[in-house]
Specification:
- The chain is mainly α.
- Helices cover about 65% and strands about 0% of the residues.
- It contains four helices and no strands.
- α3 runs antiparallel to α4.
- The protein is flat, with a radius of gyration of 23 Å.
- The chain starts with 18 loop residues before the first helix and ends with a helix.
Length: about 110
């Protein structure tokens, strides 16, 4: 019987999630949920003043900036171009499309530009 020079078949397994990463994801999701439900429970019978409403309306933008801010000091051209796309979109679009454009442009540009 003649042997062939084929490599042995390998079984491909899905990579396991690192337990520390899984724990971090579960804890972040729990804190996010508790913050949302806690705010509802604490403030359900109260009316907020104009200052408090202004702070709550500005919070999503502040969170977005805190996520994007490290890119300002990046030395990767893909990140800087994605940042410019995100800032351009933020000046013209609501929050959700801006996030989609920012994440999408970063992913595409990181794939195309090493």
């Amino acid at each position: 019987m003649a042997s062939t020079n084929r490599p042995p078949r390998r079984r491909y397994h899905m990579p396991m999630v690192d337990p520390a990463n899984l724990l971090a994801i579960v804890l972040m999701a729990s804190v996010t949920y508790l913050a949302r439900i806690g705010g509802y429970i604490l403030l359900r019978n109260r009316s907020l003043g104009p200052r408090a409403m202004a702070v709550l309306e500005a919070a999503p933008g502040c969170v977005l900036i805190s996520v994007i801010a490290p890119v300002f000091v990046s030395d990767r051209p893909a990140d800087l171009i994605a940042l410019a796309c995100t800032v351009f979109a933020a000046a013209r679009l609501p929050l959700l499309p801006t996030i989609v454009i920012g994440v999408g442009s970063a992913a595409l540009l990181r794939h195309l530009i090493p």
